[in-house]
Structure formats: structure tokens, C-alpha cells
């Protein structure tokens, strides 16, 4: 039995504390909410069984496991090997797929720098899924065009909000958690360019980073806020209804993005709306990484434009160069520059 797309998923946590592994698994299951009850039960059984063995090997309670414990790839390797060494290949492959999907999801959410399951062999052939690809230019154009058009076939569509969500990912590199936690008061007008706004984001480790919403994006966000005030008038505080500036119609502490109920938007709603937008644009979904693919596209575009790695690190909120390096490698900028330095290019006859 699948969950409805507007079902709230509690993904809040203290940012400077390690993310509990159980919380990450709950987020993963929220993303996989369209699977059958039997499949969901199988996922949970595979998770619980291996989680218990990992905890026992580490000498801690299963509920005390965090995502940080999986950074050591030998943890999963040891637990997986001892539990499944005498089990049928089909059982091992199913559990491997469950944990590989979970770990790939955590990589795409920037909870882990790399998938530790790549160090764990399964008896059948098959490579782990590749990292999410950026959305190509023609697909981006088609995606935005479709989002800007009314969709009579989707009763839950909120055109202005969904367009603002997708563009916030593409133009500010927001994580799903950023979209959930952003408040109206996190946007401050810039004095150096009319219409531009500085956006303050609280990321991992309680560290702030700042990105800019350029005037074109600000205009889209303002149209969304105007539509929100009309669609959900009860969310506009008394005394602010007649404000001409859309940003001033709401209290600074109110969430930027909300669901159809007027409450702070949930992870499940974001993922569902992005997935629907991809379907309309004919873009193949990326399991576990549909929303993150917007951020990936943001990073790849900047890397291809020659943005210095330290600037890209700051924009993405990375504390490790290794996390940013994967985007530079995916863009191929460094390898292309190296290949272009080949002196044989100069030897090609001009008329050949």
C-alpha cells in the first residue's frame, strides 16, 4: 500500500548531531513509498537484520547507529560477509540491493561521500548504479516549459510552487533539506542589484552558507508567494494582507515552501512533485536522486563554466574537497583541458 504524496515525513534533526541511521532509512522508505507492502516489508527485514549485526560488531545498540558509522567501508563488508556467507545467492543479492539502494540514496543526499556497498561483493554480476547525471540543456528547457504550463491532468498541481521548487534546485543548488527548512526571513534584498536577494542556508554541522537568488529567480519566487496568498489566505497573518511586497505578506519565521495544507512542505511532497515534473518533460527518473539531480545539474553547470573549486565548495556547502571533486570529475573540465594540451593538435594540417 503506497503513501499519498502529501503524507508528511518528519526529517527534522539537530544539524550538528550525526544523522541516525534509522532516520536515513525512514527517508529512503519515504522515497520508495510507491512499492508494495510486501516489498516494503522485505526492505525493512533486510535493513533490520544487517543493522543488528553491524551494531553487535561495533558493540553498540542498533538504535545508536548513525550514518557516520558507514563511512568505514569495512563495517558493512564484515557484517555482510558474516551474515550471508552460508545463505543462498538470491537472499544475498536481495539484501545487497536493499542496502546498495539505501547507501546510494544517502550519497545522493550528501549524507555519505561514497557508497560503501561498492566494497561488498554480491555473488551475481552487476555493478552498482552510477551517480546521478546532470540534466542536459534541451531537457532543462523542456522541463521548465512544461512546468510553466497548466496541467489539467494533475489535480494536485500548483504550477507556481513547483516551478519555484525546481528552479531553486537548478539555480541555487539546494538540497531537499534546504527546501524544507527555508523560511521567508532567510531572504534578504541585495543593495548592489535591484531584485537580487541573498539567501542564508543552515547546513550540516550548523554551518551557514550564502547563495544569491538573481532577479530572474526572485521574480519566480514572488509569483509563487502571490499565488500562495490567494490559494491559502489563512496562512497570511492579520495586518499583512494588504502589503504590496509579496515577501512582506508573511512572517519571517514562516516556511518558504508549503504543501497544499499550508504547512511546511515535506520531503515526500518535494520528491513526488519533482518526479511528476520529470514525467511531463519526458526525463527518465533517477531512483533515489530525482531532487538531488537538480543540485547535481547546478554543480556541473558551474564546473563547466570554470568556477574555481573553492567557490563551488562554498556554494554547495561542502566541508570536504572530495565531495566537490566528484562534480569536477563529472564535468570533465580538467581532463578536457589536459587532452587539449596534446601538441599533436598543432600538427594537424589546416586544410585536412
Helix coverage percent of residues? 40-55%
Summing up helix and strand content along with how strands pair, one would put the structural category as mainly alpha
Order of helices and strands: HHHHHHHEEEHHHHHHH
CATH topology of the largest domain: hpI Integrase, Chain A
Strand order of the largest sheet: 1-2-3
Distance between the termini: 64 Å
Overall shape: globular
Can I get a quick summary?
The protein is mostly helical.
What do these coordinates show?
- The model is unreliable at 1-15 and 123-129 (pLDDT under 50).
- This protein is 50% helix and 4% strand.
- The chain has two domains: 21-119, Orthogonal Bundle (DNA polymerase, domain 1), CATH 1.10.150.130; 137-334, Orthogonal Bundle (hpI Integrase, Chain A), CATH 1.10.443.
- It is built from 14 helices and three strands.
Topology:
Layout: H1 21-31, H2 37-58, H3 73-84, H4 89-108, H5 137-148, H6 159-172, H7 176-181, E1 187-189, E2 197-202, E3 208-213, H8 215-231, H9 267-281, H10 290-304, H11 309-316, H12 321-331, H13 333-340, H14 344-347
Antiparallel strand pairs: 1-2, 2-3
